[in-house]
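Recap quiz, item 2
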Amino acid sequence: MLKARDRNYAQFRQCSPEMNTVSLALGEAVAMVARADPTLVEIVVLSLRVSLTAVVLATLVALPIGAALAVASFPGRQALIVVLNALLGLPAVVVGLAVYLLLSRAGPLGALGILFTPGAMVVAQAVLVFPLIAALARQSVADAWHEYREQLHSLGAGPIASAIALLHDLRFSLVTIVLAAFGRAIAEVGAVMIVGGNIDGVTRVMTTAIALETSKGDLPLALGLGLVLLAIVLLLNIGAHVLKERAQRRHG
Amino acid sequence: MANGSSLLPLTLERVSFTARGHAILREVNLTIRAGTRTVILGPNGAGKSVLMRLCHGLLSPTSGRVRWATLERPRAPRRQAMVFQRPVLLRRSVLGNLTFALSVAGVRRADRAPRARDALERVGLQALAHRPARVLSGGEQQRLALARAWMLQPEVLFLDEPTANLDPGATREIESIIQSIHDSGTKVVMITHNLGQAQRLADEIVLVDRGRIAERASVDRFFRQPATAEADTFLKGELPWR
């Protein structure tokens, strides 16, 4: 009896200060989000700007390439598909390192001078999500192509018209793919840390700020950003799900 | 019909088709002429669908030649169309499916919607113009596929078992549309498994059996006194009470 109480007390003494810190920090974090704290807002806005730009750019390149890989036949196509699928598992830090080398003063694109700017972060995230969008788009288009190929051929649609028609037909699945890519981009930390440098007010985004503030011990800001990030990712997934369900019901 | 010289007759010269070492068609010679309605009959796996796809250009023969009287120019709109057993419709509205086909055929944007509406009216789907195409019933989907093919005013229309998955009511509607397409001057070439349908819609029968043309005859002759043993066996198998 006594022993058990002692143990409980010891545990209470051990946990209590941290529990307190966490709940205090959580309260402060919620308050920061609620009053739209300027530091927090600035970081969130930069994150959204960087990731949205990166995903839009990657999508513009990845969709045509994915569709072409599904519809056209040319030598080396199978090899390209294998490489693309392999790139799906690309570690973010490796992408960061590669883009860093590319953009550093001595690198081939060093003349651009965009290392440690949001521009570099856009490049890194775009490179990171490109294989995701291209590979998944290729898979969807290839499945649809299997079904539509003879009909499109019969109507006299060439490869380009066919690819555009298929992308249009798959628009709802493609939106889901793009939202998934956005989720990956905005939640990624390694690549933007390396090429952005996490400079306060310039290249500090949600994930890099969380990493930094946590190690500094400024839990409210870290937690507040964590809450926002969580909310964004959750909303994206809900949005993707609802869109897909509605499209399925409407179009069959 | 359009621009001068006719596509027909279509001539197949010693056409063979082999897939994965398996001979599906063997040295087929066949001429398809304008005017008559041609129905292709034959047991499952005889090579009917492959024959039709070779004619339409969806497949290329392993050997031999498929020759139209006039060459279709590569980038020009196609002068032949095909309707498949399972209609393939895009995830767009009924009208959108038609305007898409018209845009592929190079029809001016302003002319697309009126032509599409006209086509819908001819198959009795005008009330469904704005419905998503893929949630229509099977019969409505097939009528839309026929409208899409007909609207392009093809000189030749290939139909691969267009009523295979449909109930009798929908089948009757499809048959009457096919008859109207024939009446409008389009050459109809159709595969069917429904001998009643063959008798209703055919002028001539082409019987395909094990990769060869076994018999070709007018519809009356074919059903009253088949000339070959293959035709006799086929009819006995399909109509055992005969």
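Chain A touches chain B at residues 147-148, 150-151, 153-157, 161, 165, 168-171, 247, 250-252 (CB under 8 Å).
The longest helix of chain A spans residues 118-155.
End of item.
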